[in-house]
Design brief:
The complex is a heterotrimer.
Chain A (H helix, E strand, L loop, with lengths): L4 E4 L2 E2 L2 E2 L1 H17 L3 E7 L3 H5 L6 E6 L8 H15 L3 E5 L2 H13 L4 E9 L5 E6 L4 E7 L4 E5 L16 E5 L9 E7 L13 E5 L9 H10 L3 E4 L1 H5 L20 E5 L5 H4 L7 E6 L6 H4 L2 E4 L2 H12 L1
Parallel strand pairs in A: 1-4, 1-6, 4-5, 5-11, 6-10, 7-10, 13-14, 13-15, 15-16, 16-17
Antiparallel strand pairs in A: 2-3, 7-8, 8-9
Helix pairs in contact in A: 3-4, 5-9
Chain B lengths: L1 E6 L1 E3 L21 E3 L1 H17 L2 E7 L5 H11 L3 E5 L8 H11 L5 E5 L10 H9 L3 E10 L3 E9 L2 E8 L2 E5 L11 H8 L4 E4 L10 E7 L8 E2 L4 H14 L7
Parallel strand pairs in B: 1-4, 1-6, 4-5, 5-11, 6-10, 7-10
Antiparallel strand pairs in B: 2-3, 7-8, 8-9
Helix pairs in contact in B: 2-5, 3-4
Chain C lengths: L17 H30 L9 H13 L1 H4 L3 H34 L10 H30 L18 H31 L10 H9 L4 H26 L7 H11 L27 H9 L5 H5 L1 H4 L6 H16 L25 H6 L5 H5 L6 H14 L5 H13 L22 E2 L7 E4 L2 H5 L1 H16 L4 E3 L9 H5 L3 H16 L5 E4 L2 H9 L7 E3 H10 L11 E4 L13 H10 L2 E2 L30 H10 L5 E6 L2 H13 L7 E4 H9 L8
The chains are: A alpha/beta, B alpha/beta, C mainly alpha.
C-alpha cells in the first residue's frame, strides 16, 4: 500500500474527542498491518500544541487557520479535502460523528474516492474490504472496495480509544490552509445544554432502575454508577409514580422514548409499556433476579442476580 | 424561501428483515417501505420554514418502492406545494446513485433539506453527497433553522446536547437530524385529497453518473434480538463482562 | 259530610271590578308576549343548527314513558326521582287546572260568551279540585325535598370547574334558587288563595275536597269577612302576578328545561355513540364552528339542568383530567348564547371566546377533548337525553384534521396506518401469539369455518392479553367450536380510531377488514374485544351476527359442552364499557362466573354504572401521566374495599387485562387481588381439582 493512513481528528474546546482516539487506534492497527505510516490531520486555530500531544500517529498534519477556530462544516471539509487530494493517503478515517458527517462525503467526492459508511471494521489484507452496519444494526454487510484507496466513516466502538492515545512524539507538519475558510457557512456560537434536569433522550448511557431498586434510598447507588459511566439515571414507571425520580426520567409509554448507546436495566421487569420506550437502545444490558423477566427478551445481554451485589462491583471497576 | 426536500423510502424498521438466497442483500420481495424518519423531520423543517417565510416546498422522491407515491401524497397533504417522483421501479439504489438522481431532478431552490442519514446509506450520506455534487454550502446534523435576510441561521448538534450555530448563505444543503418540532400529523382524509390534487408530477430518471466504488459481498443478521446473551457466574464475573460490554459500546471509563 | 254537587264551582274574578279584570288581562298579555319572544329567540337559535333527522315514533313512545315515569331522573337516585316526580306531576295537574280555567272562563265564558257551555263546575269541578289539591301538596313537598337536597350541598351540584379556566357561575346558583323559590311561592300562595276564597264564599260544603285550601280557610277563619276578603284580594294579585312573572321568566331561565327537555327526550338517539355519525364532507371533517352543530345539539346545550350526574361519574373528571361533560355542555351553551345574542335573566357568566369561530381548542380545550374515554357513562346517565360523545368525537375530528393530535395518539395513528396495529409491529407478526398453541388455528382465508374470530390488537400483541387469547383458543378448540382467524390480514377494527376522531383512518381499516372478511367463508363472528364488538356490530354493516366470547361460552356451558367443576372463593366483576353500556351485555359474564361456583361480589358501580378503566376512545394510546389517579386505579381500590376475601378481579376485555394488571401494581395490590379474564376462570374450572389457588 502506497499512501499513509490518515485520521481526520475531531476536537472541541482544546481537547480531542474519544472518537479521535478510537480512529487513531484503528489507524495504528491498519498502519502496522500494511506497513505504512499513520498520519493525523488537525484543523483549527492555534492547535499546534494540541497536535503535539497526540501520541499515536507518526506524523501530524496541522492546518492552522484563525478562520477555522471553531468547527466549520464547509471550511473543515474543504481543508481536509484539499489535504487528501494533495497527499493521497490510502485510507482516510473519518469519525461517524456530527463533524465527520460534514466532511466524509466531500473528501470522497473531491478526490473521487469510494466512501464506506457505518463502518465497524476494515481489512486491508487481500484488497481493501470492510464490515458495516446497516438498517440500524439489524444487518451486517461485508463490502469490497474498487481500487486500493477509500474514505471510511467509522462507527464509534470500532477500536478502543485507550489504544489510540499512544506515547510517541510525532512529527508536526504545518500546512497552510490549501482551501478557503468556509465561505458560505459562518460559525457564530456554541451552546451547552441548558441547566436543569437532564434530557434522557439525548443521553448515550442510561442506568435505568425499576421496581427491583426497592427503595428511594437505593437510587443513590444507581446514580453513582451512572456518573461513573458518564450517563444518567432513568426509571420505569413505578419508580416515577412513587415520586422517587422526576417524570423527566421516565422511560416508556407514558414517559420518554430513548435510544441510548447503552441501556443498563437494573431490576426492570420489562413490561411492554416500558419496552416500548427503550427497545431501540443499541446495547441493552439487563439485570434481574427473575430469569423469566421479559426484559431478557429485549435485552442483548442479561445477568440473573441481585442488582445490589452487582452495583458496588461495577462502580469499583469504573473508579 | 423556495425549498426542496429529498425524501427516501427505507425498509420499515418494524419489519423483521430477511436475506435473499445468496445473502448479498435483503429479501426485498415482501419488504414494506416507509419514509426515512430523518427525512420526515427534513420535511417538517421545510414546512416550518415555508410558514416562516411565506415560501414554497417541493418534495422529491426516487421511484425506488411502491410506497413512494403515498409518501409524496402525504408530503402534499402536510403542506408541500409540489411533489416530484423521479423514475419508477428503480429498486434499491446506493447513496451515490440516489444523490445523482436527486441532483439531476432538482429544480432551482434556495435551500435543499434532506434527512441527515438513512439506515441503508452504506456508501455515504445522500444529503452531503448532494451538497458535494452541487458545491453548495452545507451543514449536517441540523436540529433547527431560522431564516434571516439572505442567510439562514442553523443549529447543528455536536453531541450530548452541545450545539453550534452557523450563518449559512443560500443556496445551501442541510442534513436534518430533527425538526424544531415533532413532525406534524396529517389526517388520512387529507392524504386522499392530495391524491386528487394534481400536485404530483413524475419525471424520468437519468442513469446515475457516478459509482460508489464499493460492492456488498455478503450480508448477515447479527445474533441480537434473538434473546439476550446470558452472562454466567457471580457478580464479579458479571461486573467484568459488563465493563467489557460498556467498553465495546464506547462508554464508561474504558472508553 | 254531604253537599249538593250541582252547586259546585267557583267564580274566578270574585269581587273584581271591570278595571281589575282588564288589568289582569293586560298583564297576562305582556307576560305571554315576553314568553313568546324569548321562546321564539331560542327556537330561532335551534333553527340555525345543521339538519338532523331525529323524529321517530319509537322516540316519541320512549319519551312519553321516560317523562311520565320520570325514570331517567330517578335512575340510581330514587330520592330525586320521587321529588321530581311530585314536582313534575304537581305542575302538570296545576297547569291543566289553569288551562281548564282559561278555556272555561276566557274562551267559553268571555270570548264565545256561552255561559251555558262552561264546564268548570259540578262533579267535574269537585273531582278536579280534589286532584289539584292532592297533586298541589305533592308539588310543594317535592319542591321542599329538592330544596333540602340543595341545602346538603352534594358534590354534583357544585359548579366548580375541573379545568383551570376561571368563570363566574354564581348566576347559575341564583337561577336554581330563583326557579325553586318561584315554584314554591306559586304553590303556597295558591293554597292560601284557595283558603281565603273558601272562607270568603263561606265554606261551601263541596269545597272540603280542596283539602289544603279547606285547612287554610279553617286556620284563617278568625279574620272575619272583611279581613278575609282583603287577604283574598291581596293573595289573588300576588299569586296571579307571580304566575304571570313565571310565564315571562321561563325562556330566560332554567325553567326553559320544562319545554326543551321534553323535546330533547323525544329527539334523542340512544345509539348515537354506538354508531357514530359519518363524516358528511370529507374535505372538512368534524365540527369547525357553531354552524356545524345540529339543531338537536343546540337543544342539548339548553337542555342541561346542571343536575351534575355526568359530572359526578365521568372517569376523566374523576381522574383529575380537565373534562366534565356538564362543563362541556355549559361552555358550549354559553358560547352559543353569546353568539346568538341571547341572555338569561341573571348576570351572564363570562362567555368564553365569544369571538372565536373555531371551537375545538378554543371554546373547548384540546386537553379537554382528548380526555374523554368515550365510556358513554354521561350519555347513559343523562336524564334529558344529551348526547355528549358524538359531539366530542366531532370536535376531535376537527383537531385531527388540522393536525392537532396528542403525541401518543399520533404515534398510534401512524402505526395503524403503516401496519394496521397500534403496537408499531409489522402486520406479519399479528398471529404470532398462536405459535405457542399446541394446535393450529384455521386460517379462515384458506379454510371455511363457522366462526370468524376477530382477535383485535391488544389480544394479539399485548403479552398478557395474548395469554388470554391462547386460553380462549384452547377452550373453544377443546369444545369443538369451528373457528378460524384472518392471520396477518386482520387490521385494528378502528373502533377507537374512529372515536379518537381519525375518520379517514377508520374508513381505511374498516375497508381492509371488510375486504378480508369478503375473502373468507364463515357464518358468524366473535371477538374477545368489546371495542371491536361495538364497531363490527354497529358500524361495519355486516350481515353476519357478531358476538362476544362470553356469549359463546354461556351457550357452551348451557349445552353441556363445557363441564365445569365447582370452585370456591369470591370474585368481583368489572363491566367493560363497550360490553356493558355499549352492547348491553351484563348477564353472560355473570352467568359464567356463577357457573364456576365462585361467589360474585358486586362493586358499587356495576352494570350500567360501571366505571371506565380509562382506556377507551383512544385514551390507551395517550399519555396518562398527568392524571391524579388513573380511573383503573380508582377501580382497583373500589374492588379492594370489597374485603380481603375477594381475591379475583374478573375482566372480559383485553384492554381491561392490560389496564388493571398495571393498576394492581401501581396501587400496590398485586398480591392481594388477581386480575383474571373470565376465560382463565373457565379454564381453571375445567381443571380436575376445581379449587382455585389464590
Amino acid at each position: 500500500m502506497s499512501g499513509a493512513i490518515l485520521v481526520v481528528t475531531e476536537h472541541l474546546a482544546g481537547s480531542f474527542t474519544d472518537a479521535t482516539f478510537e480512529l487513531l487506534a484503528l489507524g495504528r492497527e491498519l498502519a502496522t498491518d500494511t506497513g505504512t505510516e499513520l498520519e493525523a490531520a488537525v484543523v483549527g486555530s492555534d492547535v499546534s500544541d494540541m497536535a503535539g500531544s497526540l501520541g499515536a500517529p507518526d506524523r501530524v498534519l496541522v492546518i492552522d487557520d484563525p478562520a477555522l477556530e471553531s468547527f466549520n462544516p464547509v471550511g473543515h471539509a474543504d481543508a481536509v479535502s484539499a489535504l487528501v487530494a494533495d497527499r493521497e493517503p490510502s485510507i482516510v478515517l473519518v469519525p461517524y460523528t456530527s463533524t465527520g458527517m460534514d466532511m466524509a462525503s466531500h473528501i470522497a467526492i473531491r478526490s473521487d474516492l469510494p466512501l464506506v459508511s457505518y463502518c465497524q471494521s476494515i481489512d486491508p489484507a487481500d484488497g481493501l474490504s470492510a464490515t458495516c452496519q446497516l438498517y440500524a444494526g439489524k444487518v451486517e454487510a461485508d463490502v469490497t472496495i474498487d481500487g486500493d484507496r477509500a474514505v471510511f466513516a467509522v462507527l464509534a466502538g470500532a477500536a478502543s480509544a485507550a489504544n489510540g492515545r499512544g506515547d510517541g512524539s510525532p512529527d508536526i507538519e504545518q500546512i497552510a490552509n490549501p482551501a478557503g475558510s468556509g465561505g458560505g457557512t459562518v460559525f457564530t456560537e456554541l451552546a451547552e445544554p441548558e441547566a436543569g434536569d437532564v434530557d434522557i433522550t439525548s443521553e448515550e448511557v442510561l442506568v435505568v432502575v425499576g421496581r427491583g431498586i426497592e427503595s428511594e434510598d437505593n437510587i443513590a447507588e444507581a446514580v453513582e454508577l451512572a456518573e461513573a459511566l458518564g450517563g444518567v439515571v432513568a426509571a420505569s414507571r413505578p419508580i416515577v409514580d412513587q415520586g422517587w425520580l422526576p417524570k423527566t426520567r421516565q422511560v416508556g409509554k407514558s414517559g420518554l422514548t430513548v435510544a441510548p448507546k447503552v441501556y443498563l436495566a437494573l431490576g426492570v421487569s420489562g413490561a411492554p409499556e416500558h419496552v416500548e420506550g427503550m427497545r431501540e437502545a443499541s446495547t441493552i444490558i439487563a439485570v434481574n433476579t427473575d430469569p423469566q423477566a421479559p426484559i431478557f427478551g429485549v435485552a442483548h445481554y442479561g445477568w440473573v442476580g441481585d442488582l445490589f451485589d452487582l452495583l458496588p462491583e461495577l462502580t469499583d471497576r469504573l473508579e | 424561501m423556495d425549498i426542496g426536500v429529498l425524501l427516501r423510502a427505507v425498509p420499515d424498521p418494524v419489519e423483521e428483515l430477511e436475506l435473499n438466497d445468496d445473502e448479498t442483500d435483503l429479501d426485498r420481495d415482501y419488504l414494506g417501505y416507509v419514509l426515512n424518519e430523518f427525512d420526515e423531520h427534513a420535511l417538517e423543517e421545510a414546512l416550518l420554514l415555508k410558514e416562516d417565510t411565506d415560501g414554497s416546498v417541493t418534495a422529491y422522491a426516487l421511484g425506488t418502492a411502491d410506497e413512494v407515491e403515498q409518501m409524496l401524497f402525504t408530503a402534499i397533504a402536510k403542506g408541500a406545494d409540489k411533489a416530484v417522483k423521479v423514475g419508477d421501479g428503480l429498486g434499491a439504489l446506493d447513496a451515490h446513485a440516489q444523490a445523482d438522481l436527486f441532483v439531476g431532478a432538482l429544480g432551482e431552490h434556495d435551500l435543499i433539506l434532506c434527512g441527515v442519514q438513512a439506515s441503508d446509506e452504506i456508501d455515504g450520506q445522500v444529503a452531503m453527497l448532494v451538497s458535494a455534487k452541487l458545491g453548495h454550502p452545507h451543514v449536517s446534523v441540523v436540529v433547527g433553522t431560522s431564516p434571516g435576510a439572505d442567510t439562514l441561521t442553523i443549529t447543528k448538534e455536536y453531541w450530548a446536547g452541545i450545539t453550534a450555530s452557523y450563518e449559512v448563505s443560500l443556496p445551501a444543503v442541510l442534513g436534518i437530524q430533527a425538526a424544531r418540532q415533532a413532525p406534524r400529523y396529517v389526517a388520512v382524509s387529507r392524504i386522499r385529497q392530495a391524491q386528487e390534487s394534481g400536485a404530483l408530477t413524475e419525471t424520468d430518471a437519468d442513469p446515475p453518473s457516478s459509482s460508489s466504488g464499493i460492492t456488498i459481498t455478503a450480508v448477515r443478521i447479527p445474533e441480537t434480538g434473538a434473546g439476550a446473551e446470558m452472562i454466567d457466574g457471580d457478580e464479579e464475573a458479571a461486573a467484568d463482562r459488563i465493563i467489557e460490554l460498556l467498553a465495546a459500546a464506547g462508554v464508561g471509563g474504558a472508553a | 259530610m254531604s253537599f249538593d254537587i250541582s252547586e259546585a264551582g267557583r267564580e274566578v274574578f270574585l269581587g273584581f271590578g271591570t278595571p281589575a279584570i282588564l288589568l289582569f288581562y293586560a298583564l297576562a298579555a305582556v307576560a305571554i308576549a315576553v314568553f313568546l319572544y324569548g321562546f321564539w329567540r331560542r327556537f330561532a337559535k335551534y333553527r340555525t343548527g345543521a339538519s338532523a333527522s331525529r323524529l321517530s315514533l319509537s322516540g316519541v313512545r320512549r319519551a312519553v314513558i321516560d317523562i311520565s315515569s320520570q325514570r331517567t331522573i330517578g335512575k340510581r337516585d330514587p330520592y330525586i326521582g320521587v321529588a321530581h316526580f311530585f314536582v313534575f306531576w304537581g305542575f302538570i295537574v296545576l297547569l291543566i287546572a289553569t288551562t281548564i280555567i282559561a278555556i272555561d272562563e276566557d274562551l267559553i265564558g268571555l270570548i264565545l260568551d256561552k255561559p251555558q257551555w262552561q264546564f268548570w263546575n259540578g262533579a267535574f269541578y269537585v273531582a278536579y279540585s280534589l286532584l289539584v289539591d292532592i297533586f298541589g301538596i305533592g308539588f310543594v313537598v317535592g319542591l321542599v325535598m329538592l330544596a333540602y337536597r340543595r341545602r346538603t350541598k352534594p358534590f354534583r351540584l357544585s359548579y366548580d370547574r375541573v379545568d383551570s379556566v376561571s368563570s363566574d357561575r354564581r348566576g347559575y346558583s341564583l337561577d336554581d334558587r330563583m326557579f325553586l323559590a318561584i315554584l314554591l311561592f306559586l304553590g303556597i300562595s295558591g293554597f292560601l288563595l284557595e283558603g281565603f276564597r273558601i272562607a270568603a264564599t263561606d265554606f261551601p260544603s263541596f269545597e272540603w275536597v280542596s283539602i289544603a285550601g279547606w285547612l287554610v280557610a279553617t286556620l284563617f277563619s278568625g279574620l272575619g269577612e272583611a279581613g278575609n276578603d282583603t287577604a283574598r284580594l291581596v293573595t289573588w294579585w300576588i299569586h296571579a302576578g307571580a304566575a304571570l312573572a313565571f310565564v315571562a321568566y321561563i325562556p330566560y331561565s332554567k325553567a326553559m328545561h320544562m319545554v326543551v327537555d321534553v323535546a330533547d327526550l323525544v329527539f334523542t338517539d340512544k345509539d348515537s355513540a354506538r354508531s357514530l355519525p359519518p363524516v358528511m364532507d370529507s374535505s372538512a371533517p368534524g365540527y369547525q364552528d357553531l354552524s356545524s352543530f345540529t339543531w338537536k345539539e343546540l337543544v342539548d346545550f339548553d337542555a342541561c339542568t346542571k343536575c351534575g350526574k355526568c359530572h359526578e361519574l365521568c372517569p376523566a373528571r374523576l381522574s383529575g383530567a380537565p373534562l366534565s361533560p356538564r362543563d362541556l355542555i355549559l361552555d358550549l351553551r354559553e358560547y352559543a348564547d353569546a353568539r346568538a345574542g341571547l341572555a338569561m335573566w341573571y348576570p351572564a357568566t363570562e362567555p368564553r371566546y365569544p369571538q372565536a369561530d373555531e371551537i375545538a381548542g378554543t371554546v373547548i380545550g384540546t386537553d379537554t377533548l382528548w380526555a374523554c374515554t368515550t365510556c358513554m357513562a354521561c350519555q347513559e346517565v343523562c336524564p334529558v337525553g344529551i348526547e355528549h360523545v358524538p359531539m366530542i368525537v366531532e370536535l376531535r375530528r376537527r383537531l385531527v384534521d388540522v393536525g392537532e393530535v396528542e403525541p401518543g395518539l399520533q404515534k398510534a395513528f401512524q402505526s395503524l396506518a403503516r401496519g394496521g396495529n397500534s403496537f408499531g409491529k409489522s402486520a406479519k407478526q399479528r398471529a404470532r401469539w398462536t405459535k405457542q398453541l399446541d394446535f393450529t388455528i384455521k386460517d379462515i382465508r384458506e379454510q371455511p369455518a363457522e366462526y370468524l374470530w376477530f382477535v383485535g390488537d391488544n389480544a394479539a400483541f399485548d403479552p398478557r392479553a395474548a395469554e388470554v387469547s391462547r386460553t380462549v383458543a384452547t377452550i373453544l378448540h377443546g369444545a369443538g367450536i369451528d373457528f378460524g382467524i384472518l392471520y396477518e390480514a386482520e387490521r385494528n377494527s378502528g373502533n377507537d380510531v374512529r372515536r379518537a376522531g381519525e375518520e379517514g383512518l377508520f374508513d381505511m381499516l374498516r375497508q381492509q377488514n371488510k375486504e378480508a372478511f369478503a375473502a373468507a367463508e364463515f357464518s358468524r363472528i366473535f371477538t374477545t374485544d368489546p371495542h371491536s364488538l361495538n364497531t363490527l356490530r354497529n358500524e361495519y354493516e355486516l350481515e353476519e351476527p357478531v358476538s362476544h366470547y362470553t356469549e359463546i361460552f354461556v351457550e357452551l356451558i348451557e349445552s353441556g359442552r363445557l363441564p365445569l367443576t365447582h370452585m370456591e372463593g369470591k370474585a368481583t366483576y368489572h363491566d367493560p364499557c363497550y360490553l356493558g353500556r355499549y352492547s348491553e351485555e351484563y348477564d353472560a359474564p355473570r352467568r359464567l362466573i356463577e357457573a364456576t361456583g365462585l361467589e360474585l361480589v358486586e362493586m358499587g358501580r356495576n352494570r350500567e354504572n360501571s366505571l371506565c378503566c380509562g382506556a377507551g376512545g383512544g385514551r390507551i394510546w395517550m399519555d396518562d401521566s398527568g392524571l391524579e389517579e388513573r380511573p383503573s386505579e380508582n377501580r382497583i381500590r373500589e374492588a379492594v374495599a370489597l374485603g380481603d376475601d375477594v381475591r379475583f378481579f374478573v375482566v372480559s376485555c383485553p384492554k381491561d387485562m392490560v389496564m388493571y394488571t398495571d393498576a394492581t401494581k401501581t396501587t400496590g395490590h398485586e398480591d392481594r387481588l388477581a386480575v383474571v379474564d373470565i376465560a382463565q376462570l373457565i379454564e381453571r374450572a375445567l381443571d380436575s381439582e376445581g379449587v382455585l389457588v389464590g
